[in-house]
Amino acid sequence: MDIDVRGPRFGAAVTTVVLAVVLITGSAWLLAWQTLAFALGTAGGVGRSPYGWLFRRVVRPRLGPPSEFEPPEPPRFAQAVGLVFAGVGLVGLTLGPAWLGLAATGAALAAAFLNAAFGYCLGCEMYLVLRRVTT
After folding, report:
1. Dihedrals φ, ψ of 126, to 5°?
2. Which residues pair with 70 in a beta bridge?
3. Strand 3-4 relative to strand 69-70: parallel, antiparallel, unpaired?
4. Predicted TM-score (pTM) of this structure
5. 135 pLDDT exceeds 90?
6. Where are the extended beta strands (E) located within the chain?
7. Alpha carbon distance 76, 58 (integer Å)
8. Which of 20, 13, 14 shows the shortest CA–CA distance to 102?
9. CA distance 8 to 26
10. CA–CA gap between residue 14 and residue 39 (Å, rounded)
11. Residue 113: phi, psi to the nearest 5?
12. Residue-wise over 87-101: b if at least 16 C-beta within 10 A, else e?
């Protein structure tokens, strides 16, 4: 079943704010939260992530009906890519080196910002390229 494209974009906007705060504060706890959010989005799809839940319960009822839909697999793959970067960032911030944590968090932030601001999902595009080369 296809999903409303506004949901993943909303999640990317929240993720952008969370990761920016992580870079500003160096908070490993906040990055751990974002890592958990990515893990839930990877395991259950973006609709099962905390930000997907927030979109579904609070934001979407206040919007008009969706005009665009997309298959759930590319955003779910993007969540997995975010999970890897956030996981590496978490290791860097907690165990070191700190530059690794900041770089991985910054890369995840850049990808989330692209999706939130421009609707360009890097992880989704990676998924589509991988599908083309493996089929």
Report:
1. -60, -45
2. 3
3. antiparallel
4. 0.96
5. no
6. 3-4, 69-70
7. 21
8. 20
9. 25
10. 15
11. -65, -40
12. bbbbbbbeeeeeeeb
Determine the distance from the C-alpha atom of residue 14 to the mean position of all C-alpha atoms in its chain, rounded to a whole number.
9
What does the angle CA 74 – CA 80 – CA 83 come to, to the nearest 5 degrees? Answer: 145
The pLDDT of 121-126, averaged and rounded, is 97
**Residue 82, CA atoms < 13 Å, CB-side half-sphere:** 40
DSSP string computed for 7-69: HHHHHHHHHHHHHHHHHHH--HHHHHHHHHHHHHHHHH-GGGSHHHHHIIIIIGGGS---S-E
Percentage above 70 pLDDT, the chain: 100
Where is pLDDT greater, at 37 or 135? 37
What is the predicted pLDDT for the residue at 129?
97
- Give the number of other CB atoms < 10 A from CB of residue 57: 9
H or E stretch including 135? none
Residues 85, 68: Cα–Cα separation, whole Å: 28
> Each residue of 43-77: pLDDT tens digit?
999 999 999 999 999 999 999 999 999 999 999 99
Q: Residue 63: what residue type?
A: L
Residue 71's φ and ψ, nearest 5 degrees, are -65, 150
Task: Give the length of the chain.
Answer: 135
